[in-house]
Amino acid sequence: GIVLKVGGEYQNVTVNHILYCEAAANYQRLRMKDGAELLVRVTASELYDLLESFGCFHRCGRAYILNLNHVKKVTANSAVLKTGKELPLPHSAVAPLRSAFFNHFN
Q1: CA-atom Rg of the chain in angstroms
Q2: Are strands 57-60 and 86-88 parallel, antiparallel or unpaired?
Q3: Three-state SS string across the chain, please?
Q4: Is residue 25's pLDDT more than 90?
Q5: pLDDT tens digit string along 27-72?
Q6: Would the pTM count as exceeding 0.85?
Q7: Which of 104, 71, 76, 73 is nearest to 90 (CA)?
Q8: Which residue, among 32, 88, 33, has the nearest Cα to 60 in the 3D structure?
Q9: For residue 95, how many C-alpha atoms fall within 13 Å in the half-sphere facing its CB?
């Protein structure tokens, strides 16, 4: 896991429980497998630097950092998670995500 400051407390976060991270002003909103939402005050770049080494995260445009292990499919304009949640993506983010998704599982 990684240790992140969540609401003034340091919390050990299990990396494979992160479905995706979403940029929200000066925060990153981490959506967790159990439905929880953690608000962490870091930039997307800082968070991605922490997660990148785990090999299963991909940064999609400015808004999202996806855990590829929780992605079910990539459509022409979105990423669909195994939970059924669909994340709209900018056109420019789709091809790099497809490539990362393919390479991650092959």
Answers
A1: 13
A2: unpaired
A3: CEEEEECCEEEEECHHHEEEEEEECCEEEEEECCCCEEEECCCHHHHHHHHHHHCCEEEECCCEEEEHHHEEEECCCEEEECCCCEEECCHHHHHHHHHHHHHHHC
A4: no
A5: 999 999 999 999 999 999 999 999 999 999 999 988 999 999 999 9
A6: yes
A7: 76
A8: 88
A9: 2
Question: What was the pLDDT predicted at 73?
Answer: 97
Chain-centroid distance of CA 11 in Å reads 18
The structure tokens listed for 46 are: 């800082």
93, β-bridge pairs: none
- Residues 65-95 have pLDDT tens digits of 999 999 999 999 999 999 999 999 999 999 9
Tokens of 84: 């059924």
Residue 7 has pLDDT above 90, yes or no: no
Residue 83: closest CA among 69, 99, 62, 104? 69
β-pair partners for 66 = 20, 58
